[in-house]
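Appendix B. Raw example, untouched.
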Amino acid sequence: MNKVEYKDLLEAGVHFGHLTRKWDPRMAPYIFMERNGIHIIDLNKTLVCLEDAAEALKSVVRSGRKIMFVATKKQAKDIVAEEAKRLKMPYVTERWLGGMLTNFATIRKSLKKLSSIDKLMKDEAYLNLAKRERLMISREKEKLEKVLGGIADLTRLPAALFVVDIKREHIAIKEAQKLNIPVFGIVDTNSNPDLVDYVIPANDDAWKSIQIITQYISQSLEEGLMERKRDKEDAKLKEEEDKKREEDEVTETEKSAE
């Protein structure tokens, strides 16, 4: 995995915080200085925090669990959806539905409904329906897909959340806290870092800043998934070797008995 350098973060504008009058004093440990009325984030702290978050998330996916990506702001949607799809991880880039985590049983019912509509539309019987009925069904599918499409394959609660802009996604974070689901968040100077388990101090508004951090986290998850695959292959190989050794031992015993 390519390490992110200080200069990479600098070029992406990761260090630009908000206006000093909009700051949250709890972000003070991550602020380097003030320049022209804007707080400048300490990129050395960002690098350390990013590494810690990436390593922790990597171990989560290596254990076979899912990370949910959450980013509903315009400049973050595309990059987050792209990376989550590539990794086959759940994501929310449209409106966060209240109870998406805390009332997961109801969300699963909606996911089943989406799945049944999908099956119906592939069936020949669908073509025999009246044009108005088909239109209503396709509209309902579009509506469900827009909000739930990113979590269509989610069968159980995610093991962690990766959030862009913790201030905007406060409902998602509250739900995760209730369920003791760890939150990894890009935290700007106007937010409270105490609300998340792993703070990544960075500009959460600039597209380049969001991109460099999201892609680095994604690379780490990809490594974790590859390591999991290798672990499974090694375990399978060991199992086959053990089985063969047992068979050989049985054969030897039978020969000795003769």
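End of appendix B.
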